[in-house]
Amino acid sequence: MSNTYQIYLISDSTGETLDRIFLALKAQFRNFDYKTHQYSFTRTQNQITKILDITKKNKNSIILYTIVDNKLAKFLAEEANKLKIPCFGVLGDLILSFSKLLNQEASHIPSGQHVLDEEYYNRIEAIQFTMNHDDGNSIGDIGKSDIILLGVSRTSKTPTSIYLANRGLRTSNIPLVNENSIPSLLRKNPKISCVVGLTSEPQRLLDIRKNRMNTLKETETIDYINLDKISIEVESAKKTFKKYNWPTIDVTRKSVEETAASVIKIYEISKENE
């Protein structure tokens, strides 16, 4: 237990940014035993003092923080240094560098990324649109989609759609049973939007489908978990994607974030070619 690192994530806002940065950081180290302690909306010296009182009681403490108030960030760094606790500011140097590059003062406003501006409302609209167009619903106006995802069952269509929606992209996803399951509007106009096909290795799909059935205690037709049938599904989907010249992403070994990043790249290229 002595080799377990106590990671203190201290933020003056929701902590979402810091959490994502730490997830990316820890992915670089395989042998890393840790426990995280999250402190959001930390905006006073008194709050920081209380957190440090906790950190100094534990061995192997490490502090990561996103605090935009220079005075408060300096206080945390200095106090942590007195206690000989490693302390790293994630945004400090970056904000300073951008300030110099842009030749303007940073606002140093906590939660600045959560301002209720046009971008925020566009993102909310995209999320609502995506929820309404999940799993083949509301196909009548799919032409309003920024992105349309197609794929057989369990190819991460819904989670990828939600991730894209949080990036402000109106996304529809349609389960592909066969070519006839594609809305006629899309078949007649394959380039009505940025359409991307999602596929996966049959064995991986089989494992995911079996796990889903066991978790939800569902009873599906035998074809749903028949490897030969799944292989036919996948090959049929690939032929359909090729027929309509839709770009395809193999999600077998991709996380949702990686799949979404690939989709966004395809979307950006399609916009450039319009």
Care to describe what's here?
With 274 residues, the chain is an alpha/beta fold. The chain contains 10 helices and 8 strands. The protein folds into 2 domains: 5-114, Response regulator (Rossmann fold, 3-Layer(aba) Sandwich); 118-272, Rossmann fold. A 4-stranded parallel β-sheet has the order 2-1-3-4, sandwiched between helices. A 4-stranded parallel β-sheet has the order 6-5-7-8, sandwiched between helices. Helix 2 (45-55) runs parallel beside helix 3 (70-82) and helix 8 packs across helix 9.
Can you give me a brief rundown of this structure?
The chain has 274 residues and is of the alpha/beta class.
Helix residue percentage: 40-55%
Strand content bin: 5-15%
Query: Would you tell me the structural class of the helices and strands?
Result: alpha/beta
Number of domains: 2
Radius of gyration over C-alpha positions, nearest whole angstrom: 24 Å
* Arithmetic mean pLDDT: 88
- SSE string, helix = H, strand = E? EHEHEHEHHEHEHEHHEH
CATH C-level name of the largest domain: Alpha Beta
Which spans have pLDDT < 50 for at least 5 consecutive residues? none
Topology:
Layout: E1 5-11, H1 16-26, E2 34-39, H2 45-55, E3 61-66, H3 70-82, E4 87-89, H4 92-102, H5 118-132, E5 147-151, H6 157-165, E6 171-175, H7 184-188, E7 194-199, H8 202-216, H9 227-243, E8 248-250, H10 256-272
Parallel strand pairs: 1-2, 1-3, 3-4, 5-6, 5-7, 7-8
Helix pairs in contact: 2-3, 6-10, 8-9
Keyword list:
Rossmann fold; 274 residues; elongated; four-stranded parallel sheet; single chain; 2 domains; 10 helices
